[in-house]
Amino acid sequence: MLATQYFAKDLFKGKTVFVTGGGSGINLGVAKNFAALGANVAICGRTQEKLDAAAAELRSFGTEVCVASADVRDSAALEAAFEKSRAEVGAMDVLVCGAAGNFLAPAEKLSPNGFKAVVDIDLLGSFNATHSAFEQLNETKGSILYISAGMAYMPHAFQVHVGAAKAGIDMMMKNIALEWGRFGIRANSIVPGPIEGTEGLKRLSDPAEKARLISAVPLRRTGTADDIGQVAAFLASPLASYMTGCVVVCDGGQNLPGSALFNTTAEQVLRAQQG
Ligand code: COA
Ligand code: NAP
């Protein structure tokens, strides 16, 4: 369900949103929610066909769309992408740092270059985007949204690289919020839970175990890209104009259980006590 169900359809009319990694998955869902609310949208990524298909979807909302091919690890390429989007769809009011890489790897088998690849895309890539966007955001008094993950604050097996990268992103977000508040620029993170139909979920979970995965989510369902798009629309809107430096978790409560083993055992003990 798009955010237009509850927000005014022209909430972001005349505004521009740039989404790194916006060619697919959650980030494309975020871009679509902004487009549906009237924003002009720019996206970047490394795969031209993916970006072109995403742009066609975004244009169906009737807004201006800019596509730029850029690897977020390459700050010069990002700067060029931001200049292109400024020329085509205007100075950005919202930057969404969503580009990321992930795979399961036991720490003892993960090569230093494998660790570096993820930290470079997620953390350094988010800094590159933030740094290159400063002038435009300063001009628009805009805001930044970082797409984080539960791995930033709960350890997950075989995710040492992702945990380090996303924890870094959330701390960077707080530093940026602290430093750039004086320019009127806000910064916040969104932590998605398991989002249906995404590359991330495909890489980290076994479809045959979906029922078990859902049973560990307090709200008993996987999330949708629109769930995240709606939170993004709220955080970038005037409704959240006094919110900065926040990590907003949108995961159906997935990261609350902590020690799943403790919870399962506690449930068994409680059942036994109750007869
Ligand atoms: N397990 C362990 N190591 C892996 C790996 C895996 N599944 N996939 C890649 N690596 C290692 C490589 O072996 C290499 O290390 P090495 O040089 O020591 O061998 C290093 O990571 C870089 O690999 P490379 O393929 O050159 O990286 P890339 O920059 O082309 O791609 C990835 C980045 C690896 C993150 C790739 O999976 C990707 O592009 N992902 C984007 C999409 C995605 O992950 N979506 C989900 C987001 S949640
Ligand atoms: P996805 O579709 O693979 O999204 C990642 C996007 O980033 C892709 O479009 C990818 O396109 C782009 N990208 C990757 N490396 C890049 C680089 N070096 N430069 C520029 N773009 C790059 O996966 P997703 O699952 O929807 O994930 C989106 C975001 O949500 C990520 O930040 C992820 O960590 C976060 N998240 C996902 C979940 C989940 O359940 N899926 C849960 C928590 C957090 P190219 O490969 O073509 O460049």
Automatic annotation (TrEMBL):
It comes from the Bacteria. GO terms for molecular function: 2,4-dienoyl-CoA reductase (NADPH) activity. PANTHER family: PEROXISOMAL 2,4-DIENOYL-COA REDUCTASE (PTHR43296), PEROXISOMAL 2,4-DIENOYL-COA REDUCTASE [(3E)-ENOYL-COA-PRODUCING] (PTHR43296:SF2). CDD domains: TER_DECR_SDR_a. GO terms for biological process: fatty acid catabolic process. Keywords: NADP, Oxidoreductase. Belongs to the short-chain dehydrogenases/reductases (SDR) family. This is Short-chain dehydrogenase. It comes from Paraburkholderia phytofirmans OLGA172. InterPro entries: DECR2-like, NAD(P)-bd_dom_sf, SDR_fam. It holds the Pfam family adh_short_C2. Gene3D superfamilies: NAD(P)-binding Rossmann-like Domain.
